[in-house]
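sanity check this record:

:::
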Amino acid sequence: MDFDVSGLWSDRIFDDKAVYVDLLRKGREDKKTMSKKADQFYFENFVMAAECACQAADYLVSCLEDYRPENMKEMMETMHEYEHAGDLKKHEMSAALAKAFVTPVDREDLDLLSQELDDVSDCIEEVLQSFYMYQIRTIMPEAVEFAKKIAVCCGHMKNVMAELAHFRKSTSLHEMVIEINQLEEECDRLYLESTLKLADRCDNVLDIISWREIYTKMENCADACEHVCDCVEMVVMKNT
């Protein structure tokens, strides 16, 4: 019986054993390809979850720049669609982890990172809901500025997620995480300055309380982005 030996290991070619070696090598190559595809799912899922947060943040900016309280219910419905899309990415990740035999990093870390990403979209939705709950009629300029900073944080967070797939060889991931930390500190300062101005801007205590709560929720959004990047740093530290 004749065999095509062109793709076989030359030092292992003897009769039918050569066929076994060739099949073994092909099997290993197929497993590597399948593993790479499986790993790719996790990182792509993170990028898409981050994109949901980016869309929610951009929509928050547009809502506050052209604020129409009479359309608040419609705005909340649209915002919820972005938040729900983020939930779906979280559910997809949970389902994949439940079935996976091998994961690129610890499955607990993948699950935690997925949850942290979902929290960002949740926090952004809570901001818009606060405007409805506290019946805000006019927008403070600081609120628009805050929303824009949140959108910037989310954009940088998405870039971190895109780079995460290459974390073992990346030379820029650490600096990208530091940028998020710096943006969060800017939001901290804006929170303090905005809250300080409320006593002069508001006519009654209820307005002060309402806006302080809104600013707190906006600051929570920046914190949530930072928590995502803290989780990324943990993954890198444990796996390099």
Notes: Helices lie at 16-65, 72-99, 107-133, 141-164, 173-201, 205-239. Residues 7-11, 29-34 have pLDDT under 50 and may be disordered. The CA atoms of residues 2 and 15 lie 9 Å apart.
